[in-house]
Amino acid sequence: MKRLCSVLVLAAVAIVALAPVAWAADIQGKIKGVDASGRMVTLDDGTQIVLPPTLTVERKALQPGANIKASYEEKDGQKVAKSFTVMPPAPAPR
């Protein structure tokens, strides 16, 4: 019985060690488009970022051409935003 418990503990440790680790990244870019649901933002470089329902983003600000700054995690092959900020437009040159 003791040997079986040891084997189970080692198996559990191996599974946790081999599980994929979520990593976070930061990105800045310009919005190219937003899907109809307002949950998928595509940047001008083609990067697609999913905005989860738990993240509060002013939908009116999600306009093509707007500059953004975001932090995301890869989940199930998608970049899911942890933070998402629409940057104020730069002042026009005089």
Write the layout of secondary structure elements.
Elements: H1 2-18, E1 24-34, E2 40-43, E3 48-50, E4 67-75, E5 78-86
Parallel strand pairs: 3-5
Antiparallel strand pairs: 1-2, 1-4, 2-3, 4-5
Order of helices and strands: HEEEEE
Would you identify the CATH architecture of the domain at 23-86? Beta Barrel
Which ranges are low-confidence, i.e. pLDDT below 50, for 5 or more consecutive residues? none
Q: Helix share of residues? A: 10-25%
Overall shape = elongated
Average per-residue pLDDT, rounded, comes to: 82
List how many beta strands DSSP finds. Answer: 5
CATH superfamily of the domain at 23-86: Copper binding periplasmic protein CusF
Rg, Cα atoms, Å: 20 Å
Short description:
By secondary structure, this protein is of the alpha+beta class. 18% of the residues lie in helices and 38% in strands.
Polypeptide structure, described:
The protein has 94 residues and is α+β, with helices and mostly antiparallel strands. The chain has a domain at 23-86: Copper binding periplasmic protein CusF (OB fold (Dihydrolipoamide Acetyltransferase, E2P), Beta Barrel). Helices cover 18% and strands 38% of the residues. It has a five-stranded mixed barrel with strand order 1-2-3-5-4. A hairpin with a 2-residue loop joins strand 4 and strand 5 (78-86). 9% of the residues are buried.
